[in-house]
Amino acid sequence: MEIQYLDWNNSNQILNKAYEADLFVLIIGPKGTGKTSLVRDFAKNKNMNLESINFSLRTRESHLVGTKTLTDGTVSFDEGILVKSMKKGDMLYLDEINSAEADVLLRLDEALDDRRQIVLKESTGEVIKAKENWFVVATINPLSHTGTKELPPQILSRFPVRIRLEYPPENIELEIIKKYVSGEHELEIIQAIKLANILRQAAAVEELFYSPSLRETIAFGKLLDKGLSSKEAANFVFGNVYTQWGNIEYQKVNDIITSMFGN
């Protein structure tokens, strides 16, 4: 079953204005706030083909541009996702772009400047110019997330429209969760959202090492639908992950869970 995206802060409208103005967009926010869901929803509403790449330390220029291959004695060039999207005029989604290595960003910068073109130095030297309506959206996580780096100013400047996507207000988060669950456990889910926000706020001031996302509050509701008690679901979804940082960290969270959901 396809879940309809709840655009609670009118981000789709901003994306649409940016698209009409031929401006690329950067979406900034912590994990699990719906950044990818927003991008997919926008592409679907615009009936655009969406190409996407998730950046990491292992992402290479060849993933973006392409690479030469040898098949039965014949050398050919397999185009990368960047080149494909430029030639087709597809929407390109650069997920967690601030996890990319400097050389990858440098090559990406070549395509994102006002000329919207890239030279295939790996192949024939052909100049690929982006088709009209080529649209690029990138996302970044806060620098507190492992593996992220500060984006160079020249890359930031390629995305002049910036959308800040935070965790939604509690009533909106409840509406989002209810799209995934039966709705029979509303009071328990409200309590779980309050717990998640306590943990998020503690993580924001570095009192805890981890901040639960919307995925976790949705998971809590799904476990209730499967017959777990609210205390059990809270332990499995919110509490146990903190054992990664030792018993003191876990006990802090476990005490909060016990105070909210009982023994």
From TrEMBL:
Q: Which SUPFAM superfamilies match?
A: P-loop containing nucleoside triphosphate hydrolases
Provide an example Pfam family for this protein. Answer: AAA_5
Q: Which residues form the AAA+ ATPase domain?
A: 21-169
PANTHER family named in the record: MAGNESIUM-CHELATASE SUBUNIT CHLD, MOXR FAMILY PROTEIN
> What's the protein name?
AAA family ATPase
Q: Give this protein's Gene Ontology molecular function annotations.
A: ATP binding; ATP hydrolysis activity
What does the record list as coiled-coil region(s)? none
